Amino acid sequence: MRQIFLDTETTGLYADNGDRIVEIGCVELLNRKLTGNNKHFYLNPGRDSHEEALKVHGLSSEFLSDKPAFEVVADDLLEYLRGAEIIIHNAPFDVGFLNRELALLGRPLFQEFVLSVTDTLVMAKEMFPGKRNSLDALCARLGVDNSGRTLHGALLDAELLAEVYINLTRGQETLQIDVGSVQSAGPSVVSVDLRSYELPVLCANEQEIAAHDEVLQQLDKASGGKTVWRLSA
Predict the structure, then answer these.
(1) List 40, 50, 89, 152, catalytic entry
(2) Which DSSP string corresponds to 69-92?
(3) Is residue 182, in this structure, part of any structural domain at all?
(4) Is 159 in contact with 27 (CB distance < 8 Å)?
(5) Are 204 and 173 part of one and the same domain?
(6) Counting C-beta atoms within 10 Å of the first and last residue's C-beta, which end of the chain has fewer, N or C?
(7) Helix, strand or coil, per DSSP, at residue 117
(8) Which residues are paired to 4 by β-bridges?
(9) Does the model's pTM come out above 0.70?
(10) 50 and 125 assigned to the same domain
């Protein structure tokens, strides 16, 4: 499965009020492995960033003045994203801005170009209800190193999100086991990928089947015939 982790930086919070995208970062994951086939654009939004947004991403109007407009990179971006599952933290924000940029070009909605959009903020809230689930909080909780994140950057945030997602879903889609990390002074640790092994299937013998049936009969008697195992069989 091809998955793309996407993040944007913007001039402000409100696409409907004229705020624009100033940076897009994309990181590709193929069959749960980072490929290095990433995309990154700085964009000239044609307007200044709000002061609070500038404090977040640090991309000044001077720096962005010679960068391309969204319309210049739109086809390249959409071709790269086409048919992939797009994974975003707080997806409505980024998708809203992308849809606004596309609407200004008379193009269809962003969702029509991709397979699906997955919101890791929704995933995190389901897994960690009542806790902080910002990207920084998830990095700390899941052991992802974000020490280089002094300012928000779309590509860096997409890379961090990919690592967070892999940890959030570890064990759900792969048999690869991460034995874990150790102190540098400790022994070396390796990862074991069970996909390279053919695991034997052990079936119960007649004696074991008879013993199991006897236990079920006892449960039937005690529960008045309401043994869950037999009801679901």
Answers:
(1) 152
(2) PHHHHHHHHHHHHTTSEEEETTHH
(3) no
(4) yes
(5) no
(6) C
(7) strand
(8) 28, 86
(9) yes
(10) yes
